Amino acid sequence: MNNYEVTIVLPADAKDKEALARIEKEIQDAGGKVEKTEEWGKRKLAYTIKKYGGPAGGHREGVYFFMEVQLPPEKTSDVNRFLETNEAVLRHLLVKVKSHKPSLPLRGKVKVKNITKKVVKKNGNKKSK
User: Fold this and answer.
1) Which domain holds residue 87?
2) Among 6, 36, 64, 118, which is least packed by CB within 10 angstroms?
3) What is the average pLDDT score of the chain?
């Protein structure tokens, strides 16, 4: 089994628990398992998404979810097709990863080390950047 990360956008007015339960059940039926699920919260979408059965003007907000899953490689197309045809899912992204790493928080401060690069100019002089 391979490791995958799935990011899902559901409509803001959807029943999140039911939609997520259906998605997790589909992954388990495909022979996979869900290792972790995170709710990233409700956010305004960059553009309006018109989906069958949605509001007349389209969806302007969505609730983001992130999942770490393990799936057999031959079943990823089945799960991807389910997410594409599911009316409760506005957008999704299924990506294969080498291993699951701890996720960074979306909000808050993240410390980054100050890195100094040395750039060599064509004339041979070194300059710190």
Assistant:
1) 2-98
2) 118
3) 81
